[in-house]
């Protein structure tokens, strides 16, 4: 069997052929890829410089408390946040003054206390402090989140650490937060319609001139009003089906 030789323009070395036992064996020597060490090193240097030139957390979230602007971006904080910025603290402002940077302690937020009746808090398990910050009040923290009485089993990074509404839970109140039992969730009574049926219902409302903008929902259980007329109709239907006794 003849062995096909690759085209001259391909980057493959010549073909070596060996004959024997009534056949032909073709061995193609593939050319090795040329290593560009200088280009690879230059790419790593550029990536390292970009990483080093990124602003740190202390620079990114620095705040001028007189003008309420961030010096890095020049953006002004919302007016509704000024009161909390002046009175409340960020998470790392509390952790910086605690033993072991607050590892093992519980923290909550002012917005959680005002908006939810259920216990919501973070239990800190790991802290990575930015030692380049002036007061070491920046960095990253990890822990277990309990939101509305439901504790998550996976440790994750604490978000919104730069917000000015963090509060430390006193030790004599920690057990009260831990012992909170959330109320059972109410059963699901309505489910959304299938996409095609939902689109048909919305189109029908639009053509009919209805101003109702409620999302159509399909009840899982039919509510029947049991009154005297209902039982009378049931009895009349039963008699009409059974017929008159002779």
UniProtKB/TrEMBL annotation:
Under the heading InterPro entries, the entry gives: Ribosomal_mS34 (IPR032053)
A GO molecular function term, named singly, is: structural constituent of ribosome
Note the superkingdom of the native organism: Eukaryota
CC annotations in GO: mitochondrion
Pfam families annotated for this entry?
MRP-S34
Q: What PANTHER family does the record tag this protein with?
A: 28S RIBOSOMAL PROTEIN S34, MITOCHONDRIAL, SMALL RIBOSOMAL SUBUNIT PROTEIN MS34
* Name under which the protein is recorded: Mitochondrial ribosomal protein S34
Q: Which species does this protein come from?
A: Oryzias javanicus
Lineage per the UniProt record: Eukaryota, Metazoa, Chordata, Craniata, Vertebrata
């Amino acid at each position: 069997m003849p062995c096909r030789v690759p085209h001259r323009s391909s980057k493959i070395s010549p073909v070596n052929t060996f004959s024997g036992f009534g056949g032909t064996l073709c061995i193609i020597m593939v050319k090795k890829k040329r290593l560009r060490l200088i280009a690879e090193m230059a790419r790593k240097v550029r990536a390292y410089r970009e990483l080093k030139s990124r602003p740190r957390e202390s620079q990114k979230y620095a705040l001028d408390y007189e003008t309420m602007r961030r010096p890095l971006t020049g953006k002004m904080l919302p007016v509704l946040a000024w009161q909390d910025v002046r009175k409340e603290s960020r998470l790392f402002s509390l952790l910086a003054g605690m033993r072991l940077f607050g590892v093992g302690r519980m923290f909550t937020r002012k917005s959680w206390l005002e908006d939810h009746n259920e216990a919501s808090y973070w239990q800190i398990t790991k802290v990575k402090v930015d030692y380049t910050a002036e007061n070491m009040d920046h960095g990253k923290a990890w822990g277990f989140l309990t939101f509305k009485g439901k504790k998550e089993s996976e440790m994750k990074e604490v978000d919104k650490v730069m917000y000015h509404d963090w509060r430390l839970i006193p030790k004599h109140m920690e057990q009260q937060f831990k012992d909170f039992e959330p109320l059972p969730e109410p059963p699901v009574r309505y489910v959304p319609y299938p996409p095609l049926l939902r689109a048909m219902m919305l189109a029908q409302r639009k053509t009919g001139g209805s101003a109702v903008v409620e999302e159509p929902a399909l009840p899982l259980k039919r509510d029947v009003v049991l009154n005297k007329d209902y039982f009378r109709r049931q009895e009349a239907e039963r008699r009409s089906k059974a017929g008159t006794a002779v």
